[in-house]
Amino acid sequence: MHERKKVLQRLYCICYNAVTMKRNRFIKLLAWGSMCLACSAALAATPEEDYNKGMEYVNAGNPAEGAPYFQAAAEQGYAPAQSALGVCYGNGFGVVRDEAEAVRWFRLAAEQGYAKAQHNLGRCYYVGKGVPQDYQEALKWLRAAADQGLDLAQGALGDMYLVGTGVEKDEAQAMQWYLAAAEQGHTEAQFIVGFNYEQGRGVPQDIAEAAKWYRLAAEQGFAAACYNLGVCYEYGKGVPQDAAEAVKWYRAAAEQGDASGQGSLGVCYMNGVGVPRDEAEGIKWLQMAAEQGDTQAFYNLGAAYLLGKGVEQDDAIGVKYLLTAAEQGHERAQLILFDCYKEGRGVAMNEAEAYKWLDLAAEKGDPYAQYGKGICCYFGKGVEKNIPEAIKWYRAAAEQGHADAQYCMGALYAKGEDLPQDYAESAKWYRAAAEQGNADAQAALGTFYMNGSGVPQDATEGIKWLRAAAEQGQVEGQFNLALVYHHGRGVPQDYAEAAKWFRAAAEQGHVLSQFNLAVSYHHGKGVPQDYAAAAKWYRAAAEQGDADACNDLAVFLAEGLGVEQNEEEAATLFRQAAEAGHSEAQYNLAHVYHFGSGVPQDDAESFKWLQASAEQGYAQAQYTLGHFYYHGKNGVPQDYAEAVKWYRLAAEQNFVPALYSLSECYEKGHGVSPSAIEAMYYLQRATELETTDHVLQSPSDE
Hints:
The protein is mostly helical. The protein contains 38 helices and no strands.
């Protein structure tokens, strides 16, 4: 009677499941026929046989057809069938979905020590399906299954310890459970073990060990592991670098629909890494990744459209992709958008919008963005000018090793306006940038060593850094290195080497180097004397407004040295330099007005510029002005006292004609009390200097 009751119960279950299926009447009749066959078979089946029959349906992809067999075996207390029936109730396979009923069957099997049911019951408690969420109860059942060696439970315990859910967070303990599961071939655990070794999470970092576990999971087809193994091969992380092998694994991930794999495979095709370059194929894979929302793919597509790689160049479409990536937090996309909005590329120019994207990247810690934000705040680009805020962001980028930001910090401390002047602090930042190859910092640090600013004076060290900058084409480094050779500071004096570096900087438009190269040709120092070459470089410097060059070029034009004589242009250049306060040019302009060379003769204008030059301390002008007062020439009254005043000022600069004239004044008592001793003193000084006066002086080589 008992056996008959069980058969009827099984029959009822089969009938219930067959008639509740939403099929047409014909299908229902077939189900009744199947039920009768199953009923007669069940009269002789054991619980294990029922369970195995149900699993045949599950393995064939028809778990609903297996539910009646699981039910029959489960009601006889067969734990594997109870667990399987719990799965059916949890998912609605062949029965009405009922999570509480699923938990009941899991519990019956779990209490018999069946590991899979213990795992399933633990998962129900973990997520609160069919029972109230209870991490402690979840831990209890998962541990019971894990202790029996069930890889799924071991992996779940790893998750709990890794995050600290229901237990104290313990990455090392998590790693032990993941490793236990991985060693049984659990693919996801193998992937996590690889990741933990790569990151040094719960174990010492070991990239080779990471690659080993990625490979085990990848060889089982785990997409994320395929992708990570591809990364290992592309960059030589834990395995020999091998672009073709990287592509193989990227493709394995991509063909499973892994967005990262698709994106990386696309980039390989775009750049010809590990495969022949095929930009169209690259775009295809990038688009597939982007369709899944892959941030990096949006960025790469944006860059492709901006550059016209594999697609027709289109800034607007490029910006559209970049905006999507940037809105998902892609820092490089945000930085490029900054440039696009700043330059009006693909969008309307908008400094405020440009700054917005830069700010987002800076706040995430990107050093390039932090440096850019510093620039914007310093100069008020897209945001209100704010020097303290600028310094804050320069410092943030500098402390992350951004060389340009380090140079800026050095310059700010050296300048001493926005920060307290501190040469030692300046030298610290210059060195940090210089050691990264920043040429501006190398030039500045070299100058610091030459002068002993913030560091001990050390010409050898100074020359080392100046040369490093100069060889990178940094003009200040080239100019200062030229001065080192010109004056022989820390190296033997070498005018040829000086001229070489003056030329290097001059050809880049460095005005002082242009002037000094002109002087080198003028006097034949380090190069053959060549007035035409000198005139060429004087003109280059003069066109940039250099007063010395204007004056010296004017002398060449006035005398026809290396150029066709042109007194009118000479006078124009003398005036340009004179109005800039150049004392020698003022004297020379007085001269041309005195003689009417290139300008109408004008004694009043001549006297005005002569006096301006003399008052700036130009000895030739002081002597000439004294001469005019002594003789009462050029519209000035004779005035011996005034003459002596100007002679004396010129004499104090050892200007020989003034010494002779002052000696004569003491001898004759003109403007001073007669004194043979004073007369002899000035005469002897003049004789010792042994020089002669001239009206138009050529520029010195200093």
